[in-house]
Structure formats: structure tokens, C-alpha cells
Design goal:
The chain is mainly α and 394 residues long. Helix content is 76%, strand content 0%. It is globular and about 60 Å long. It is found in: Membrane.
Length: 394
């Protein structure tokens, strides 16, 4: 995949000889394929899929674990600190994360199509163009971080927790700009199937983050400031590692900085906005969940309550995860084909017309509590195709 001749990620099945009796697909008919040959082909395709999907899954897991590790260490500082960090991560950083991922999905469409067409040199231009747009978006979102306290109070959060979360949020501004650089690089590398490099870089950042968090929070006793500084440093190190890899190991697709990155931004912004709307409903669910259910303090001080809440949600999750298994496939098709605008309308409709109504009925009429929010989220998801269905639990 390093050469100038682009190859598709998954090769099509082709008939090799008459003796193998492999399936030959044309416009009119499908020839019979023996079970053993079919199973062998399925196994080959499965291996090819996991060759790409496996490192991509690990990359997401390692990057998600950065915030998870921070919250774990902060939990030893006190209940208020833990509630504040969880609130900031759920609502404020959740908004920034959702918008950045959505805006970056435009690059997933364009880079995938350019790579499939063999236009490798265009990939670097697309990535730089996405950097310009996402960095501008980060500047626009900066007031959300700066005025996080009044925003959280307006959403109905506890005043004391919102005040601490607001101070912590200001320290987390570098993470927002790291998002703006990280997601375009990821889409750039994913389009070329260079996912193993992302996984190794993300793992290295996670290992360093664990050490820095222990040093700053426990040994140096820097508290929330130390937690924020280490998380920002880890994200910046992750981005720097990926960018260095692009500069030195992606010569065919990266030809240096170009003024073309500032050309034709209007069309790029349009596709980016449509992609962002695809994921916005998930972030709306985050803010509403945080508003309705003030669980952080109680959850982390009463083990029985934790067990009770997990038991209640287990049945819902076991069923909903199975039903949502087809969603990533639909999402990949929509993004790859550039259908973000159409899917955005479907997302908004499924959330406001179906999911919101179901959630209100279960939450207020039948007093289902947290289960109502989960059911609403899943019902909204079943009616749409979105890349970030798991953000409720981020």
C-alpha cells in the first residue's frame, strides 16, 4: 500500500479455475459455490477485515483510556473532584469531542475516495485543509470551555461541582486543539490502512500517561491541575508522534505543506458540518443524561448502589448492543459514499421524533430513571447510522 498504485482495502472474490467452482458474480446470475469454498472465502475476508479493524479498535481503546486513567486517579482526591472531572469529561469535553469527530468525518470520505482513485498526493492536501477547519472550530468552541461553569449550572448541575468542573475545563483547552490535529491525522492514516502505527503510538502515549498521572497527582500532589496537565501532555505527545510518522513514513501521500490547504474550503466545510450533525445527537444525550441523573457522588461512595445500577442496565445493554451491531456497517457506507447530509436529517428526525418521545414517556410517565435515557439513546440509534453510538459511555 505504499506504492503509487492504490489497491482496495478488501479484494473482490474472483473465480480462479473451473475445478474450484467458485462463485462468479455478474449482472445476471450467481453461480453455485460449494460450502467449503464459501467458508474458506469468508475466513479470508474476515482475516483481511480484522487486519484493519483490530489495530483501529485498539487505537480507540487506548485513546479512550487516557481520560479513564485520569478519572481513576482523580477518584482518590475526593468525591467532589471526581464528580467535577466526570462532569467536564461528559458534557464539555464531550461536546468538543463530538464536534471534532464529526467535522473530521468529511476527511474520511474524501481521503477514502482519493486513495481508491490512486490520487495519493491529494491526501496530504485534504488533511491540511481539515486542520485549518478544525483549528478554526476549536477557536469557536473555546468560550464553551472558558464559561463551562455557568453553562453547567444552566443545564441544572450542582453549583459546587459545576464551579470545580469549570476551573478544570479551562485547563483542558489544549486537549481541544489536540483533537483538532489528531482526528485529521487519524483519517489520513486510516485511508491508507496504516492503522498499526496509530495503535502503537496510542499505546505508548497511554503508558506514559499512567506514569505522569501517578507522578503529578500522588507524588507531586498537584491535584486537579496536575491531572489536567498530564492529560494535555499525553494528548499532545500522541499527536506529535502521529504527525512525525506522517512526515517521515508517508512520502507518497505527504509532500509537505501547501497553500492549496486554504483553497475550496467552502465545500469542505459543508461536508464537515453535515458530518458533525451526524454525531451531534449523541452529545445532546450526554447533556440530558447529566442533567437528569445526579449520580456521580453517590455512585463512587456506595458500592451497593453501583451494583444495583449496573444490574438494572445489564439487560438493556445486552439486547441493545446486539441490535446495534449492524450500525457501524451502515455508518461506514454512509461516510464512504459522502451521504452525511442525508444521514444528518435521519439522525435529527430519529432523535427528536422517536428517541426523545420514548425517553420522555419512560422517564416521566413510568419513572424508569437512567434506564429511560439508555432506551431513548438506543431507540434513536436504531433509526439512524452514526459513527459515535458509544459516546454516551465515554
Amino acid at each position: 500500500m505504499e506504492g503509487d498504485h492504490a489497491q482496495p482495502l478488501l479484494t473482490k472474490l474472483q473465480a480462479s479455475t473451473e475445478d474450484e467452482k467458485k462463485s462468479v458474480v455478474d449482472e445476471d446470475h450467481v453461480v453455485y459455490q460449494p460450502p467449503d469454498t464459501f467458508l474458506r472465502d469468508v475466513w479470508m475476508e474476515t482475516k483481511m477485515v480484522w487486519y484493519i479493524a483490530g489495530p483501529a479498535i485498539l487505537t480507540s481503546l487506548f485513546q479512550y483510556s487516557l481520560a479513564f486513567v485520569t478519572q481513576t486517579f482523580v477518584g482518590h482526591l475526593g468525591t467532589l473532584e471526581l464528580a467535577a472531572v466526570g462532569l467536564q469529561n461528559l458534557v464539555i469535553s464531550g461536546i468538543g469531542f463530538g464536534v471534532m469527530v464529526g467535522m473530521g468525518s468529511a476527511l474520511e470520505t474524501l481521503c477514502g475516495q482519493a486513495y481508491g482513485a490512486g490520487q495519493l498526493k491529494v491526501l496530504g492536501i485534504y488533511m491540511q485543509r481539515s486542520w485549518v477547519i478544525l483549528l478554526t472550530t476549536a477557536l469557536i468552541l473555546t468560550p464553551v470551555y472558558v464559561f463551562a461553569s455557568p453553562i453547567l449550572i444552566l443545564l441544572g448541575q450542582d453549583t459546587e461541582a459545576a464551579d470545580v468542573a469549570g476551573k478544570y475545563s479551562v485547563w483542558m483547552l489544549p486537549q481541544l486543539f489536540a483533537y483538532a490535529l489528531n482526528f485529521p491525522v487519524q483519517k489520513f492514516l486510516q485511508a491508507q490502512s496504516k492503522v498499526m502505527a496509530m495503535a502503537w503510538i496510542s499505546l505508548a502515549a497511554l503508558v506514559v500517561h499512567v506514569g505522569l498521572s501517578w507522578l503529578a497527582i500522588f507524588w507531586l500532589d498537584l491535584g486537579l491541575v496536575g491531572a489536567a496537565v498530564t492529560l494535555n501532555a499525553s494528548w499532545c505527545a500522541l499527536v506529535v508522534g502521529q504527525v512525525v510518522y506522517v512526515f517521515y513514513r508517508c512520502g507518497d501521500a505527504w509532500t509537505g505543506f501547501s497553500w492549496l490547504a486554504f483553497a475550496d474550503l467552502a465545500g469542505f466545510v459543508g461536508l464537515s458540518l453535515a458530518s458533525a450533525v451526524m454525531l451531534w445527537a449523541a452529545q445532546k444525550r450526554k447533556t440530558r443524561t447529566g442533567r437528569r441523573f445526579h449520580l456521580p457522588a453517590a455512585v463512587f461512595t456506595d458500592d451497593k448502589l453501583v451494583m444495583a445500577e449496573v444490574s438494572k442496565l445489564a439487560c438493556f445493554l445486552s439486547v441493545s448492543i446486539f441490535l446495534c451491531s449492524v450500525q457501524p456497517i451502515l455508518s461506514g457506507v454512509a461516510i464512504g459514499a459522502g451521504w452525511q447530509a442525508i444521514v444528518a436529517y435521519v439522525n435529527v428526525g430519529s432523535y427528536y421524533l422517536v428517541g426523545l418521545a420514548v425517553g420522555c414517556i419512560l422517564g416521566f410517565k413510568f419513572n424508569f430513571g437512567l434506564e429511560a435515557a439508555l432506551v431513548q439513546q438506543r431507540v434513536s440509534t436504531w433509526g439512524k447510522s452514526t459513527e459515535d453510538s458509544s459516546t454516551l459511555y465515554a
